[in-house]
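Predict the holo structure. Ligand: adenosine monophosphate.
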Amino acid sequence: MFHVEQCHKTTTQNNQNIKAMNKELLLKNLRNIPDFPIPGIQFKDVTSLFKNPDCLREMDDALYELYKDKGITKIVGIESRGFVMASSLALRLNAGFVPIRKPGKLPAETISETYGKEYGRDTIEIHKDAIDENDVVLIHDDLLATGGTMLAAYHLVKKLNPKKVMINFLIELEGLKGRNTFPADAEIECLLTLEGK
Ligand code: AMP
């Protein structure tokens, strides 16, 4: 059974917004798959939230409330579960959507980062012209585990010199302490914080 709390670094206003979200509904619908993709991993299957229209609406509204006044011009989604809410939020905020993808998937000139993750190593890429110095960027992914994927994404986006970069997750696995891998001034928000790994 998971215990749910707000993320540590949320502002008062953000906390009020997150409280208004129906966490119980999301928790009830979040499927856990033990030992996937390898033994020892408790895989949080967010597709069980994406397939439920009420859960989609809860998450979409909560994200909109969190970010509606931040002047965001680009939302970066991390392949592939990060694409879902990133693109719907981009539409609501009248911002652009930018994909971060696995190597060899993006057709134009890219920059890349390689990093370690909870299971194995990986590389991610972004189009070099996807972001410029006038952009205020939110990077979104479904889940914060060790933080390796998002930290690589954060470095990647920073190389393109935007005005500001913020970070968002649907779910944080608090026990893995992924937050500690980020610089102290990183603005990180998440909708659900689950105890454990
Ligand atoms: P990490 O880089 O360790 O923070 O891992 C985050 C990425 O791996 C995200 O894109 C997640 O989709 C995926 N991931 C890692 N661990 C899990 C887990 N226990 N349940 C679901 N997704 C996970």
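Strands lie at 4-5, 31-34, 42-45, 74-78, 96-100, 110-116, 121-127, 136-144, 164-173, 187-194. The helical segments are 12-20, 23-29, 47-50, 53-67, 82-93, 148-159.
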